[in-house]
Amino acid sequence: MAAFPTVEEARPSRGGRPRDPSRDGVIRAAILQLLADVGYGALTMDAVAAEAGVGKATIYRRWRTKQDLVVDTISDLTAAEAQSPDTGSLEGDLRELLHTLVGVVNGPTGAATLSLLSTVPRHPALAEAFRNGPLAVWQQSFDRVWEKAEARGEVGAGFRTSVAAESIGALIVQRWLLTGLPVDVPFADEVLDTVVMPLVRASV
Known about the structure:
mainly alpha
C-alpha cells in the first residue's frame, strides 16, 4: 500500500521569519470560525487577520495562499485530534478512534470541514491538498490500528484494505453529512458492536 505523506511532508516551505507559536491557537480559531460563518469562497487572508486580531504580515508569513491556510489548519488540528490509540486490543482502539471522530465532526474542525465540502469538487488543487492532508491523517490513524491488530493476530493481512475496513468510519460520515440524525458516542458504539466487530470476527 502506498504511504500517505505526513502533514509536514505535504506542506510546502514558505520561508520568511519563523512562526510565533503563541499566536497559532488564536489564528486557527479565527480560520475555523470564518470557514463555518462565511465558507471558503468568501474567506480572505485579510479577514483572518482581522478576526484573529493580528497584523496581515503575521498571516502572510505563515501561508502563501488561502488554500495553504485552510488545508494546513485543518490538517494540523486533525493530526492533534486523530492520534492512533493503543489500548491493547483492536476493539478498544477502534472504539477510541470512533469516539474521537464523533468529537471532531461535532466540533469546530467538523463545522469548518462541512463548509468546505461543496467547494472541494470545483477546486481540483484544493481537493488534492485535502486528500493529502486531513484525509491522509485519518487514514494513517486507522492504518496504525490495523497494523497493531495484524501483529496481535486479530485480523488477517488483507483486512485493512477490504471494503469491511473502509465501512468503519463511513456510517458515521454518512449520518453526519446526509441524514441530520445525531452523531454521538452511543451511535459510534452501536456501529462498532453491531457492524464492525461482527465483520472483523467473520474475517478471521
